[in-house]
Amino acid sequence: MRTSQTFSISFFIRKKKKQPALALLYARITVNGKSLEISLKRTIPVDKWNQSASKLTGNTSESRQINKKIDETKAQLYKTYDSLLKEGLLVTTQTVKARYLGSDQQHYTLTYLINYHKEKMDKVLKYGTMKNYTTTENYLKDYLKAQHHTSDVYLKQIDYQFTLGFESYLRVLPGLQNNGVMKHMERFKKLMRLAEHLDWIEKNPTKRFKLRFDQVDMVYLNKTELEKIKNEEFEKPVLTINRDIFVFACYTGLAYADAKALNKNNLQIGVDGNKWIYTRRSKTNTAVRVPLLAEAERILKRYKTHPKIDGTEKLLPVYSNQKTNQYLKEIAKEVKIKKQLSFHTARHTFATTITLANGVPIETVSKLLGHTKLSTTQIYARVIDSKISNDIDNLREKLNDEKTEMVTDRTFYL
To answer: What pLDDT sits at residue 1?
Structure first.
């Protein structure tokens, strides 16, 4: 049936009643002898129209623009016709026109995409990650209202200019530094990539946007600072509790969520007959096995009967992340350490001061931290001056030994 189908395109003009010197430009599509008109929404001078060539005469800027529009329309209509045939759909003048104008397709909006993402990812992504997405989505809605004076926008209307505009909008918000802006842009890019994968958009306008994160100095405690915190006597019991849990993390490398989730089932006897922590990283679900060092074990024993965990399976009375970080700032102030402490500082301290600085191989540290790539752990190795110093001392010693052997060998032959 399709082989006998005919399809043709022609262009014509229709004079304006009140302005006979001007005319509106139309395309006529014909399928199997039946025709339908499509307005190109262009007004042209009647005396310059060449009907036999379906072109505007002359070489003026206006003529070139109109003729270009005619060529583009013709090419797009043929493409539309071919796509309908390829998809096995009924081809009529109405279906060709509807596909060309886009009225046969469902047009998804940014709000629809946001709600779809929430629905599908709510059980997949962690609570904290979803909370971050909600913040980004709220910023997108605020941006639409402030800069575009609307509450929603079709995805096909989002272009590269919209993307750059959103970045500019974020940069003037109070409290947002460059890396914070980049995190929101990263989530926006992921949302638009989802729309692309769902075939809701033909081109992803955020694909060309490059994320530009500033390198941030890693905050960790050196041996002296860690001892200072460990030995400090605090008047407030709440500071002592949070200090102890922080120190526990310094000797286990556990992130906040993993330390908070620890229970008695996570304590196992390892291959060496000693106590180990067997758990999974909340962030990546990667298996983690950490031998329990003496300092960490002492802290667990100290809180065995604490009222907050007594009678439960929990191992430590961990406060909320916000409160914990608030208390850690207070602790840093009391012990006069001029570093911005957070719970994650403990993980950095474990990787640097506790393990790498004491000669633990980087491959082992990577396993203890639950990293899936060694390159992630190598970031810690770069910040250990003492490790570099020890490695160079070992190199010097080795080179001196080789030099001594060469002198000895030369003496023997003499």
So the answer is: 39
Query: Residue 160's pLDDT is what?
Result: 95
The first and second tokens of residue 390, run together, are 């020890």
Domain boundaries, the chain: 2-101, 110-197, 223-383
Q: Specify the CATH architecture of the domain 223-383.
A: Orthogonal Bundle (1.10)
Q: Which tens digit of pLDDT belongs to each residue from 326-385?
A: 999 999 999 999 999 999 999 999 999 999 989 899 999 999 999 988 888 888 877 666
**Per-residue pLDDT for 262 more than 50?**
yes
- The sign of the torsion formed by the CA atoms of 262, 263, 265, 271 equals positive
